[in-house]
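re: ur question from yesterday

yeah so i grabbed the chain u mentioned. its 253 aa long if i counted rite. heres the sequnce exactly as i have it in my notes:
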Amino acid sequence: MSGQRSSTGDTHHAGRRLLLIVALVAAFSLLPVAQAWAQGPTTITLQEGLDEYAGTADTYIDLGNPDTNWGEADRLRTKTTENADALVRFDLSGIPAGATITQATLRLYAIDHTGFRPVNDVLKKAREAISVNGIFFMPWITLRAHQVLTPWDEGAANWTQAMEGTAWGLPGAQKDGTDYHPEYVDELVGFYGGDQWAEFDVTELAQFWLDNPTANHGAVIKAYLHYSTISYSFWSSEGPLPWFRPQLVVEYE
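ran it thru and got these structure tokens back, copy pasting raw so excuse formatting
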């Protein structure tokens, strides 16, 4: 009869409505993914005093001043032959838990460098060969960033202790596997001069810190040039100009 609708037609209409609903649900569920893909990864710079960030802890430990804490100093020092090492730690709580860090760079701004003591005549001649008008140009050094394993306090750490009443595994935080991880995270070979950034790739370490916040004890920067004693200074988180304080630049998604 002309006034009746076939059951077959109703089934087709119901099927189309169901497919439309499924398509809409799928589209809305994929919208955040599409938006994230369109926006790309997020990059933030953690630097004391900028963009309301206040989570940097840093100091250095110095063999020449074993009982002195330098947590309020405006600079960090590293000195070859294990005479001084710099400690730095960043608070990553502003990065969403579960995020994937695709790139993380630790940056320290070098101010100056001092000291060169040749230990034999060969090195004395080498010194003369690379001096101009009596001014000696400092040799290149190697800087290495290691993961710190022992908890430390910015206001108490010194050559002998990590925190008040808690000693390092060895003085100077030199017990590998206890105070620091023996495998360096990154190294700069041939670093030389002031007024420039020393940059370390700490991507995997930053991911570890994000995933294990209670194990975030920061990084220690060690300087190497075993035939000479050289000290390098970097601005600390108490430095006078916030733009030159230690940075952790993190890209995540």
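noticed a couple things. The chain has two domains: 1-39, 41-252. also Residues 1-5, 31-37 have pLDDT under 50 and may be disordered.
anyway ttyl
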